[in-house]
Amino acid sequence: MFIITLFLLLHSSSKVNSSEEQSFSITKFSTDQKNLILQGDATITPTGKLQLTTVDENGNPLPYSLGRALYSTPIRVWDKSTGEEASFATFFSFATEAPNKNTTAEGLAFFIAPVDTQPQGQGGLLGIFKDEKEDRSNQIVAVEFDTFYDIAWDPKETPHLGIDVNTIKSKEFAPVDFLNFGDGYKATVLVTYDPYYHILVASLVYPIPKKSYIVSAYVNLRVTVPEWVRVGFSATTGLSDNYVETHDILSWSFKSKLPAGDNDVLGLATGSLHHDHLNNLNSFSF
Fold it and tell me: Any idea which GO molecular function terms this record carries (predicted)?
């Protein structure tokens, strides 16, 4: 029986006195959504989708599009005075659709960035990075769903699920056959961070046709991103008329927990993904 158990916090103690928690849950987006900052081409449709990139009047995706959406309240991911880091889990669903599944582009990402973050490079840079160079001053961690091979930085000529740290070049990745999922299939994603072992884990599941992928990487948020950050999504289409796709976020939940100083914390949450329940991942709760 195949079970993936994701521990957000593995370090336990009986001395927990207090902690700082932040959470939100959006099961359906609304056109008057107050807790999102929309950047670039991002918009919310009357049907309750967070549409990151532009479509025409017939719903066809357009090239040269870049859109981002950020949660409006900054998230504290570590404490400068104590050195403590927060654990977090985020769960979201998305769908992409392309007129031609052989020319999908470019992809989308969940990312963590400085509070004043602004849209960056188009195309394969996914609106997150200004160029392909690794630069610690970027202070960005991202989980990317890359549907197009960019020869300058992408691995092994394959679309992939990747973890990016201060560069668009994925630190770790798992090949994903996005070509077979570009017809509007719903994807569900769980991203977790364990501050004790400094492990970021991202799992991607397509309930139909029951395909799952997972990637993990060593990431130390305390030395990578600022104490206060924004979390959000970014997506881009290609720089050619043929290389396009839609990028729609369907739902989004997030929870973080920062322990009080001098105290260790009990496990925040444990999420189990069982292959018998691949068609029911929306049952995940925080």
Answer: carbohydrate binding; metal ion binding
pTM: 0.86
- pLDDT single digits (tens) 181-211: 767 789 999 999 999 999 999 999 998 888 9
The full set of domains in the chain, from first to last, is 3-283 (2.60.120.200)
What is the torsional sign of CA 206, 168, 141, 117?
negative
What digits encode the pLDDT tens for the residues 11-67?
333 333 468 999 999 999 999 999 999 999 999 999 999 999 999 999 999 999 999
